[in-house]
Amino acid sequence: MLRNMFKKTYTTIDTKYKPQAKGGEEPSIPQGLWRKCNKCGQPIYVEDVVNNYYVCPKCGGYFRVHAYRRIEMLVDEGTFEEWNKEVPFSNPLNFPNYEKKVTAAREKTKLNEAIVIGKGMIEGNPAVVGVCDARFIMSSMGHVVGEKITEAVEQATREKLPVIIFACSGGARMQEGIVSLMQMAKTSAALKRHHEAGQLFISVFTDPTTGGVTASFAMLGDIILAEPHALIGFAGPRVIEQTIGQKLPEGFQRAEFLLEHGFIDKIVERKDQKRVIGQILYMHRNHDMVERKPEDGSRDMESGEGVTNQNASAPEKSDSRAARREKAEGGFFGRFSRSEKTDSASAKKHTKRGDKASEKMQKADDAGAKTAWDTVLLSRRTDRPVAMDYIDGLFDEFIEFHGDRYFKDDGAIVGGIAMFHGMPVTVIGQQKGRNTKDNIKRNFGMPSPDGYRKALRLMKQAETFGRPIICFVDTPGAYCGMDAEERGQGEAIARNLFEMSDLKVPVLSIVIGEAGSGGALAIAVANEVWMLENSTYSILSPEGFASILYKDSKKAPEAAKVMKITAADLKDLDIIERIVPEEEPASMDNLYRLVEYMDRAIIEFFETYLPMSGEALAEQRYERFRRM
């Protein structure tokens, strides 16, 4: 019924455009078949537009979507229950002709107000959904819109449900003046309580979203998504140009501009939104997580006892770990799937291999087989796997999130959420490039302040939703350019150390290549730190050390030896907990062996740390560094 209603809405022929046949004669076209794309101006079949999620099949331009049509595309059929559909009109400032304007908008759109809100299922996951409709006074936010959003968020908080709002607005509603302005604070306050209750808010920007909506609830998502090319900004382009008298650059205030500048997590095409949002909701259902209770540390990840799901039972809830692995395994894991009975023995065997690695490396050094400088060179090899290689090998359904919410998205830090044997985790990595072009994009793995702030944002998000954190460390050091200093490189690193020390979720950091100075430590304040056998971890590069102490950077090989920077050295110093053996120097050819070892070891790590309370985890982390 909804589909038929909206097909009818979109089949009104555009009278400004009539396709011309050859010779200038007008073809005979049945009324309602054609529509003109407002982006490329080309004629398109209405049916093609409908079937393509209201995206022009010729130029990819996005049509604005009516609220109920958006809900139909997003929410599982037959599950949507609308809330507060009919709200009486009021004119708080007695603004002239305001009632007539609202009445006209109601007659035109068949809506009561500029937002439709209710509860439904998305890919089987319950959520509260709100969708703004630009046809209703440009979806400006008056007191009714503010009240509908606030009531919905409050109800979602009570029912422990996530909230999703598709924003589209010209901003505050001028006819309501200061009353409209107050809705910015009211909706933000409701979302703050929702956040403090540990509940998820996903904000989705559509075209256009400006003014007071951008400066309130729309920018407060735990996860912020956007449609391609959507106009997003506080002051609209026309206002800016008229105010400063300057022509704005191409693409200014578009979704891609905001992604580059760190304000949104991800741009998602309309055809993928239901799948991606459903995936995010599923990862936030807290299934397969060990319930942490200080008085009971016996929760069992193997049997599933203590597993909680705050919304509904997930299919994986009662499965054994081996069954979950069999469902989730793909890529590397298909090569070495094992039965549940072998898991414990395998983990113990790998642990012993890791413990013996230090002895083996020390003997090799004594025999002159491999020097510390050799290890430095191995850690820097261009064919060595980078963070995303390990992320792809170890985890399923990785969704990368972007940006620090302040200035930009730093390519030297990657991060997001993923599944590990049926359990949601947050994954963060320092990312080097795989080639020269990629290295330039990634700044050769040297993070800026924006990268560290992005990492911390994702860590705090993980803490809010109870997800363990796994970090992959691989950097020659933090970027030391002038712009990094201007944006507070030292403060950004210090803030990470400060906040990571007290995170209430398990944190594991794995050094996979170089770990240089505070730039590495900024994502390595963990419950445990592991190193690959041919990786290094140092106060600064051997070249820098030699320049400072020996006044000669050519003495770097000598410096590497005295600095004690190899995995074996640091295991002996109790700086790290585990060595990941490299039977051969790490490469893409043998990555699956490293992934196999890490997989078993991470399971063991979780079995140790997931049953601990948040306070106990923070205390263990504090004591770990306190003894150094």
UniProtKB/TrEMBL annotation:
Recorded metabolic or biological pathway in which this protein acts: Lipid metabolism; malonyl-CoA biosynthesis; malonyl-CoA from acetyl-CoA: step 1/1
SUPFAM superfamilies referenced in this protein's UniProt entry, alphabetically: ClpP/crotonase
Cofactor details (free text): Binds 1 zinc ion per subunit.
Pfam families, per the entry: ACCA (PF03255), Carboxyl_trans (PF01039), Zn_ribbon_ACC (PF17848)
Subunit structure: Acetyl-CoA carboxylase is a heterotetramer composed of biotin carboxyl carrier protein (AccB), biotin carboxylase (AccC) and two subunits of ACCase subunit beta/alpha.
Function: Component of the acetyl coenzyme A carboxylase (ACC) complex. First, biotin carboxylase catalyzes the carboxylation of biotin on its carrier protein (BCCP) and then the CO(2) group is transferred by the carboxyltransferase to acetyl-CoA to form malonyl-CoA. Component of the acetyl coenzyme A carboxylase (ACC) complex. Biotin carboxylase (BC) catalyzes the carboxylation of biotin on its carrier protein (BCCP) and then the CO(2) group is transferred by the transcarboxylase to acetyl-CoA to form malonyl-CoA.
InterPro entries: AcCoA_carboxyl_beta, Acetyl_CoA_COase_a_su, Acetyl_CoA_COase_Trfase_b_su, ClpP/crotonase-like_dom_sf, COA_CT_C, COA_CT_N, Znf-ACC
Zinc finger (C4-type) boundaries: 37-59
CoA carboxyltransferase N-terminal domain span: 33-299
Cofactor: Zn(2+)
Domain CoA carboxyltransferase C-terminal as annotated: residue spans: 353-608
Taxonomy, superkingdom: Bacteria
Name of the gene: accA
One GO cellular component term noted in the UniProt record for this chain: acetyl-CoA carboxylase complex
Subcellular location field: Cytoplasm
Protein name per the record: Multifunctional fusion protein
Catalytic reaction annotation: N(6)-carboxybiotinyl-L-lysyl-[protein] + acetyl-CoA = N(6)-biotinyl-L-lysyl-[protein] + malonyl-CoA
Principal localisation: cytoplasm
